[in-house]
Amino acid sequence: MSIIYVLIPIAMLFVLIAVGIFFWAVKSEQFDDLDRQSMSILFDDDPKPVIKDNEPKDEQ
User: Fold this and answer.
1) What is the rounded distance in angstroms from the CA atom of residue 37 to the CA atom of residue 45?
2) CA 28, CA 30: separation in Å to the nearest integer?
3) What is the residue-level pLDDT of the chain in tens, covering all 60 positions?
4) For the whole prediction, is pTM greater than 0.70?
5) 11, 5 in Cβ contact below 8 A?
6) What is the Cα–Cα distance from 12 to 9, expressed in whole angstroms?
7) What is the rounded distance in angstroms from the CA atom of residue 21 to the CA atom of residue 29?
8) How far apart, in whole angstroms, are the C-alpha atoms of residue 28 and residue 9?
């Protein structure tokens, strides 16, 4: 029965840590834009042109 006197404060400490991490995440704006990341997977990025330095330029 005496173990409960140890487990209750440990459980309360874990809850306080979890609540603190949650409020830190909200404060640092982790949950602001949830739709952008889910939609960005649907669209391809525009490919950038490859420029090679070794090729001579065409001069006419």
Assistant:
1) 14
2) 6
3) 899 999 999 999 999 999 999 999 889 887 777 677 677 677 766 667 777 666 666 655
4) no
5) no
6) 5
7) 12
8) 28
